[in-house]
Specification:
With about 210 residues, this protein is of the alpha+beta class. The chain has helices at about 35-55, 65-75, 85-95, 105-115, 120-130, 135-165; strands at about 1-5, 15-20, 25-35, 175-180, 190-195, 205-210. It is built from 6 helices and 6 strands, in the order βββααααααβββ.
């Protein structure tokens, strides 16, 4: 619907509401008529308000940004991140990890990649952004299950995929490097001051890791 100004032979302008949804012009309502410019503008505004009320249209007051933000935020009941599943989830499947039919395994792997925090923080992140509820105890129980029943399958899938990526063969593999600090001010041949994942750079420490060649 739209507002139309129609002038008659006497110069009087009629303000009308026209509907063209069927392909033909149809008079819905005549708001009024006048030859006074101010009255015509008032009638036009009245016609526009009629269209909004009839069609159920709502407008934002773009002069009041705080009210807009508040209105939008209060109407949001939940939100969910989908890019993790769309991007990393596709890579996860292409590697072959989808053969492990356990939803917790996939959730835990993907969300630890984008949010590498503690297991408790990971459960909070999963609930906040994916609406998936896991307890910390469930995570620990699953890690036992992963080690006891699925470890070899994970290793096999990883190895076979790596061979596809590196057809010339695997020469070096680094796995899970970590640091351990010592509460002492003295260095020796083993313990040296340097990078610490715990932020204790002032303490001598050693770096632990697994190297397969």
């Amino acid at each position: 619907m739209f507002v139309r100004k129609k002038r008659n032979k006497s110069g009087v302008i009629s303000i009308q509401i026209i509907d063209k949804s069927s392909g033909k012009y149809k008079l819905v309502k005549t708001i009024g008529s006048s030859s006074d410019p101010f009255e015509i503008e008032r009638l036009v505004s009245k016609g526009e308000e009629f269209i909004k009320e009839t069609a159920g249209l709502k407008e934002f007051d773009f002069n009041n940004f705080d009210a807009i933000y508040a209105q939008v935020l209060t109407s949001v009941t939940s939100h969910k991140l989908v890019g993790i599943d769309l991007v990393l989830g596709k890579i996860f499947d292409e590697i072959g990890f989808n053969h492990i039919e356990d939803g917790l395994f996939k959730d835990f792997v993907l969300y630890r990649l984008v949010y590498p925090k503690s297991k408790l923080k990971t459960t909070e992140y999963l609930y906040r952004f994916a609406r998936k509820s896991y307890s910390e105890d469930e995570i620990y129980r699953y890690m036992d299950k992963l080690y006891n029943t699925q470890k070899e399958l994970v290793q096999q899938i990883s190895y076979e995929h790596t061979l596809k990526v590196l057809p010339q063969g695997i020469q070096v593999v680094f796995y899970d490097v970590t640091t351990i600090c010592f509460e002492t001010d003295y260095e020796d041949d083993l313990r040296k001051t340097g990078f610490s994942k715990e932020g204790k750079h002032q303490n001598p420490q050693i770096v632990l890791g697994l190297l397969v060649s």
